[in-house]
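Cross-posted from the bioinformatics board.
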Amino acid sequence: MTDTPPGLEVRSLHAGYPGRRIVHGVDLTVPAGQVAAVVGPNGCGKSTLLRALARLHRPESGTVHVAGSDIWQAGRRRAAHLAALLPQSPRAPEAVTVAGLVRYGRHPHQGLLRQWSREDERAVHEALEATGTTGLAAERLDQLSGGQRQRCWLAMVLAQHTPVVLLDEPTSALDLGHAVDVLELVRDVAAAGRTVVMVQHDLTAAARYADTLVAMKDGRVLAQGPPRAAVDQALVKELYGLEADILPAPADAAPLVVPRPRPRPGGAAAVRRT
Amino acid sequence: MTGPRPTRPPRPGRHPGGGRPADGPGLTPPDSTLLRAGPFSWLLPRRSALAAALLLPLLVLLVAAGVVVSSAGTSLPDALSGLLGTGEPGTVMIVREFRLPRLCVALMVGAALGVSGCLTQTLAGNRLATPDIIGVNEGATAAVVASAAGSSTGMVGHWWLGPLGAVAAAVLVVLCAGGAGSAGYRVLVVGIGVSTVIGAVSDLVMSRENDNTAGGVFLWAVGSLSGRDWQVGTPLLAALAVLLPLGLAAGHRLQLLRLDDEVTASLGVDLRRLRAAALGLAVVLAGLAVGVGGPVAFVALAAPVLAQRLCGPTRVPVLGSALTGAALVVAADTLGRVIAPVELPVGVVTSVLGGPFLLWVLLGPDRTTGKV
């Protein structure tokens, strides 16, 4: 590690609700400019972890540092300068335009005496450019396709100008083509120097687009590391209780996860015949 | 941003619709005029500004009409000389001591009701969620009525109990609904119930008064500005001078409620504090208005709906609601003074006109939230 603090540093984070602990002692370090993908079965604590990183859910103990600053020590507004969150399928204001949506991202930088600075203008411009939505700026969000909409939401989060970007299943509602578009965009965001943490259900996509894979189950991190090393049959079995084949992708040898059918009482052949 | 790490070159223009350079000013909100001075910048919403520019002269006209017209009949020159203090002593007194203070109180009561309705409607995301309907006005009414009970002088009750009763009712509604952050629909339903209960208490208190003393309270309890002057006008003005700017600031931030709670919170907004502050403001404003003018019906519903039409669907029209509410109450009070041989209380006028308006709101599409 160099002398500059990592983009995101999480130390022994415990979080949950009264009477029910959901995240048990998570440690996570993501260098600036890298993408970490959090994978795991439903209810494993991924979303609670992400909410704790976004300063939406106060952890019971542990720390979250963004570029050296503790987001739970920082004020709410200051924290909004450090980490931005894109929730899963967020609701947009009715009849909002793309530019209107992206402008919301500038709120932490604005005030009653500073409602629309040149810096706001530049940040919105750059966010639209980065997501390829400049040409859509004047369109109404509700008239765009799902893939275009998700790029616009990403633009909003980018306009917030935070070193850390948190994405909750950014591709879950998208078809394959648009999902790849968004994931490539996530790579571009990291390439521009930001730290990205995304919750991702698709293990194959996570393995291909993340620098670090964080596998969670029952609120604990089972494995953490470069995806090519981390993804193996044992991990898939442990996470999902599934037998799976892990194949190297012909193009780039990224691990492909191909689940095997679960053994059934009647046998696979019997099922197929009916 | 920290140091870039070029793992992959960016590919501009890869996405459909990308690559066209944006002109800077094109990103400024198109419905606003940008004012910049050094490090400061303001966005002036054009449609709201235009609405205010139309409503202000309308208010002046309505107040002028209120000074001039009456069932007693005053000519325009008489009224003017009364206003300037150069006319007959009797006219001067009527205009300066009675009509003008009452009109000013009407303006303030209307503005308070309008802003209160605008805040509660925005908080609940529902146009029906006004202080009339969620029990706040009934709470204020009950407190004032109770203070008049047992008095033998036929007094109206202490106006300053209005805000206290309103706050008590709001606390009751919020507790019953399970927290201020709960869904607007739930607050609405619980509010209707609480409203009915408190209303029954007021009715009970009034029905036990003898006929001689109940008259004043009964008149006030339908909403009346009769006899209101600077004795209540001055403290009301002082309260509004503090509360209205706070309402404007709250309205500015409430625009973020149009986003998801999670998104809003990650933009650095303390939603619980914002909601509690806006609700508190709305309740105290409604309590003040009711304490002074009685529960004038429908103004808190109608003013924000009309202001929204004037200012456009993307705004939280706090200023517009204040001006519209003020115009409605002044117009209704003046109408009540001239229309009948015996003065009609302002609350009766707004009730008569408000019924059809409520139907229109219920049946028409909701432009602000898409909900009924």
